[in-house]
């Protein structure tokens, strides 16, 4: 198969051409980070305007880099949720236009399934599997009993892990998205602050990061008020230790409850070095193979949407011209059942 994939759910405009679900012929990513930095986060109206400006340019470039024409394609994969409605609509409209003009099947892809299938470029998924998706908007443990089946077994009750990185990074004076810099600082610092690990002892697979966020912000603000200066590297290291502790504990618990043949780490926060090594150690210690997306495919990109799209197309998933954006799309899906 040769799939043209679009991803515009948030602040990256991306178009890719993917062969057989696991080979990247092109993967063009236009990031808007600079435009959102001065606001400290993604501004939806600004995001959709950028997508409109970038989408055709990315499309042309993706086809050119892959050395393919529309006639070579076997399908068009598109993220239709979850994400920002105005942003999603730009990608959906472009994908529909190509599918309609060239009589190609339209394959609707859940953004989170895309994050998980980024690992397909490393090796095919072995089932049953458990995945941890940690990104800007989500923190979810996913049970995948068979190909095309996704069931949420644990999720955040409030903030997502990536969102928490961005918010605590902001009080440290780091530009959005703060994750990569907090990660770097954490490696240079030591865990000298004790931050809370919410829900770690509770008998469920859910997460909560808002208490950690508040504790962190209060610590920094209190120090500001009394005029002491805190070591930013140590703050970052202490914060990251708390996040990793919770993610590793809940993942280990999920693997004790579900008979996984494989564990997958995915999403933007999966680029985190500390998290990657801590989880790898904990998972392999249980004798379970650990697979993670290549670091450069952890953030949003269309290649991962093409990989998931190829799998979904094999299971007969397709959409017609009435496909709409679903900003709050649920992540419970069974490919065997018509969608
Ligand atoms: P979602 O996938 O939930 O819709 P999103 O697409 O905005 O949200 P991603 O692009 O998958 O999120 O990930 C972006 C997030 O990853 C940001 O919050 C960013 O700070 C975080 N992030 C990126 N690199 C790192 C890192 N090395 N350590 C921690 N967090 C990181
Ligand atoms: Mg992004
Ligand atoms: Fe994402």
Give the biggest beta sheet: 6 strands, mixed
Our measurement of the CA-to-CA distance between the termini, rounded to an integer number of angstroms, reads 21 Å
Oligomeric composition of the shown chains: single chain
- Order of H and E elements: EEEHHEHEHEEEHHHHEHEHE
Uncertain ranges: none
Give the integer mean of the pLDDT values.
95
What molecules are bound to this protein?
A: adenosine-5'-triphosphate, magnesium ion, fe (iii) ion
The side-by-side strand order for the widest beta sheet comes to 10-9-6-7-8-11
- Rg (CA only): 20 Å
Question: What structural class do the secondary elements suggest?
Answer: alpha/beta
What's the count of strands?
Answer: 11
**Discrete helix count:** 10
Net shape: globular
The percentage helix is 40-55%
Strand content: 15-25%
GO molecular function: tRNA N(6)-L-threonylcarbamoyladenine synthase activity
Family: Belongs to the KAE1 / TsaD family.
Main location: cytoplasm
Domain Gcp-like: 23-306
